[in-house]
Amino acid sequence: MYQNKMTEQVIRTPGPWTNVLRICMAVFAVIFLLSGIVISRGFMLSGYLFTVMYYAYSICSRREYEYTLENHTFVIDVIWGKRYRRPAHVLDMDAMEAVAPGWHDSVAAYRRRGGSIKLSKYDYTSYDENTPYYTMIITENHKKIKLLLDLSDSMLQAMKNRYPDRVYLQETGQLHKNGIQMSGKETVNV
Fold first, then answer.
1. Residue 126 burial by Cβ neighbours in a 10 Å radius (0-12, 13-18, 19+)
2. Contact yes or no for 12/148 (Cβ under 8 A)
3. Mind listing the pLDDT tens digit for each residue in 120-151?
4. Element (DSSP H or E) covering residue 88
5. Which of 30, 37, 68, 91 could covalently link to 75 via disulfide, CB atoms 3.0 to 4.6 Å apart?
6. What is the mean pLDDT of each run of 10 residues along the chain (190 residues)?
7. Is the dihedral of CA 146, 150, 155, 160 positive or negative?
8. Could you tell me which residues come within 8 angstroms of residue 153 by beta carbon, excluding any fewer than 6 positions away?
């Protein structure tokens, strides 16, 4: 059988106050360090603490995700601050129950509100409102989990080719709870 590997990287959109908080920490660090030099050494510790907080926040506020689909293995890596990579999940695709948009009937039982089955949820989306996300229900370490993912069309199509009865693509013109789905990005309320 042919071996193929697909990789996709998703960059999480930073919050609206991320840059403001980063600038405030840098300004306070400079003020306390200069106060420690000019007035008293007691201010130096506060300046160093703000510098450490700025460095830690710059790492933690930048998050990226990398999805890798290789044969029957789906790997999700979390990249912190463009430097530190940590594998979050290594999943066997044969244990997958469904991949579908959040409004689809195959994942309706696992919804946050209105669903009858409660699962641990892991969100690996970009938080971009214009990007549709998909819900994956899969078993990891003998426990079902729910993953929210921003999957590309090529990766979805590769999953659909391997598991046609478990992958549900977002089709145009399909009626769902919020209205009629037009092109994958715009909806018209009914």
1. middle
2. no
3. 899 999 988 888 889 999 999 999 999 999 99
4. strand 84-92
5. 68
6. 78 84 87 87 84 84 90 92 89 91 85 80 89 91 92 90 87 45 41
7. positive
8. none
> What integer pLDDT is reported at residue 19 of this predicted model?
83
Alpha-carbon distance values, 146 to 4, 95, 108, 112 (Å): 25, 13, 12, 11
Q: What is the DSSP letter of 183?
A: S
Tokens found for residue 175: 């009626």
* Token pair listed for 150: 């921003």
Over residues 150-173, the pLDDT tens digits come to 998 889 898 998 888 998 887 644
Q: What confidence score (pLDDT) does residue 170 get?
A: 73
CA atoms within 13 A on the CB side of 64: 13
Return the structure tokens found at 20.
């403001």
> Using CA atoms, how far apart are residues 38 and 150, in angstroms rounded to an integer?
51
Identity of the amino acid at 184: G
Look at the block and give the residue holding tokens 């919050």.
Answer: 15
Contacts of the segment 45-54: beta carbons below 8 A, 24+ positions apart = 50/25, 50/26, 53/25, 54/22, 54/25, 54/26, 54/29
Is there a contact between 139 and 95 (Cβ–Cβ < 8 Å)? yes
- Write the secondary structure of 30-65 as one string of H (helix), E (strand) and C (coil): HHHHHHHHHCCCHHHHHHHHHHHHHHHHHHHHCEEE
* Amino acid in the structure at residue 38: V
